[in-house]
Write a structure and sequence with these properties.
The chain is mainly alpha-helical. The chain is built from twelve helices and no strands. The longest helix is centred in the last third of the chain and has 33 residues, at 273-305. The two termini are 20 Å apart.
């Protein structure tokens, strides 16, 4: 890894910023591209695919050739810089520094599938992604329902501050989370704040209350999912287990995209009670799962600090102890 555990949440914020900017201006751009229908004999949807897809394709090709898989293959770094990155990683998580820990092994894949914590993180992420996907799809629809007289371009403009706010909140939470090395509390707060926002959207009778609710929901759309996506891998020092776990988490989390488009049917306007109620229930469940994971890891850390797992090290060399990864009695979970 290029970064230590105390740096990942802010680094992930750059991805969040891309998502926020996409949500903020993607609708406006699509609306403008709609006026290109017939230009050069192409329909508007084709221009949409070209204009919005071409930068992603070009960046993907660039990343294929220039994005290093590890410090060892980072040709743009000097030998001294590579050595420094490796030393930083060893100091941060010595369990990730052994040769075996940096490679993929079948035992690590099996260990990931059998670890209940990884399944819990995946379910937690599903609740956060339900909100993320439905917000991305239906925010203009929800805002339009606040005042049906608003024009399409005006509604799209009103979505921009919501997405900008979501990025600001995530960066603040990510920075604090990295500094304090606490993850659960920020994810739980994101769930609770978003729940309040959904309630405001359901019960608000004037323009101000439901639109303010959009901002509270936005406070959690990236915080819940983003902190979860950082929290789990930072507690898995072995590459094989970590890569398998991330795949599981993304697979289960992204499956929320199957259900999200059906949560806000047109017939439920303007309150969309079903969509908000389902999202509230899943966010509450995600907050509960976060609390359970936090409680479990805190107790494991206390037990290890008290020497209750030292028996696992009996007869093992220093390297063999490090090979235990997150099961090592010396390993301290980020909570």
């Amino acid at each position: 890894m290029f970064y230590t555990r105390a740096e990942l949440a802010v680094r992930f914020g750059y991805i969040v910023l891309g998502g926020a900017l996409s949500g903020a201006f993607g609708g406006l751009l699509a609306y403008a591209i709609g006026y290109m229908d017939g230009v050069q004999g192409l329909r508007a949807w084709r221009w949409l695919m070209i204009i919005e897809g071409l930068p992603a394709v070009c960046l993907g090709l660039f990343a294929w050739f220039f994005l290093a898989d590890s410090p060892d293959s980072a040709w743009y770094l000097s030998p001294e810089q590579r050595r420094m990155i490796v030393l930083r990683g060893t100091r941060d998580q010595r369990e990730a520094s052994t040769l075996s820990a940096r490679n993929l092994h079948r035992a690590d894949v099996i260990a990931a599938v059998k670890d209940w914590k990884i399944w819990a993180f995946s379910v937690l992420n599903f609740g956060g992604d339900i909100q993320l996907f439905s917000y991305a799809i239906f925010l203009p629809t929800i805002i339009k329902a606040i005042n049906p007289a608003w024009s399409v371009i005006y509604v799209q403009a009103l979505t921009v501050p919501c997405y900008i706010w979501s990025a600001v909140v995530y960066f603040a939470a990510g920075y604090a989370s990295d500094k304090l090395q606490h993850r659960a509390i920020f994810g739980i707060l994101g769930c609770l704040i978003s729940i309040v926002g959904h309630i405001m959207l359901m019960v608000g009778r004037n323009v101000a209350v439901p639109y303010a609710g959009c901002f509270l929901v936005a406070s959690g759309i990236f915080t819940v999912s983003g902190i979860t996506l950082v929290w789990m891998p930072t507690n898995l020092p072995r590459y094989g287990k970590r890569s398998t776990a991330v795949g599981m988490q993304l697979m289960i989390g992204n499956s929320a995209g199957i259900a999200a488009p059906y949560l806000y049917p047109t017939g439920d306007t303007p309150r969309y009670v079903m969509g908000h109620a389902v999202t509230i229930a899943l966010l509450a469940f995600s907050a509960l799962v976060s609390g359970v994971l936090w409680w479990f890891m805190v107790n494991i850390n206390k037990g290890r600090a008290a020497g209750k797992e030292d028996g696992k090290m009996s007869g093992l060399t220093e390297e063999e102890i490090d090979e235990l990864g997150d099961e090592s009695p010396r390993y301290i979970y980020a909570t």
